[in-house]
Design goal:
Order of helices and strands: EEHHHHHHHEE
Number of strands: 4
Shape: elongated
Strand content: 5-15%
Oligomer: single chain
Strand order of the largest sheet: 1-2
Distance between the termini: 42 Å
Radius of gyration: 24 Å
Structural class: mainly alpha
Number of helices: 7
Length: 235
Amino acid sequence: MTTPPKIRPSDRDAFKELSNTDAGVQPIDRSGQEGHMRSVLDALVAEAGKVAAWLVLVAAMISVYEVIARYLFHSPTSWVHETTVFLIAVIFALGGPIAMARDKHIRVRLLYDAASPRARRWLDVLNGVLTFIFLAGMTYAAWVMFYKATHAPTGVIQLERSGTSWNPPFPAWIKTVILISVGVMLVQTIVHLWQALRGKGYDDAANGNGNGNGNGTGTGSTGTGGTAAPARKEG
């Protein structure tokens, strides 16, 4: 099997090719990455995750710098530790929407695997509703936390700081990232729920799209474009 060429999320052709996934037939990511992109938003989030992944390298590099400065030159810094913690916290917070974009959240599959494509659709609807309720509450809590971290009790904008000798506004910044992350996950959940309610992909799979459609043509198990043979009557 050959690997298809990399197509950026902005190329709408990337969402015309379908692949069998856990939830029937859904658009796939043709960039060679694992996971299935169910919307343009998911693809954009996944691309942003590739950029955010470089923060791990930045955190590692400045940590090495701190070790060299501290033990070789006896000149420790006041900013490396807090910056490293901040960068890792950002990566951790962004992991939620990235995992959701790639359809990689951990799930219990005992009932899901045994269900038909149509039943999987309604399981996804139920999961989407519960996830929406949870993330709506998380977004509200993140907003309250963000507001308190960026405003004084009088309402004046005042960023929460770490209180150390360097005293950066990292607490306010990380709470801003948390708000953005859960907000994006909420929007992703709404999109996924809408797709499940529309039955996009599920009904096709239930009607045998993988073996042939109503016109007698479809995708075979070993290739595409195969013609479905007519059923023979016994009698």
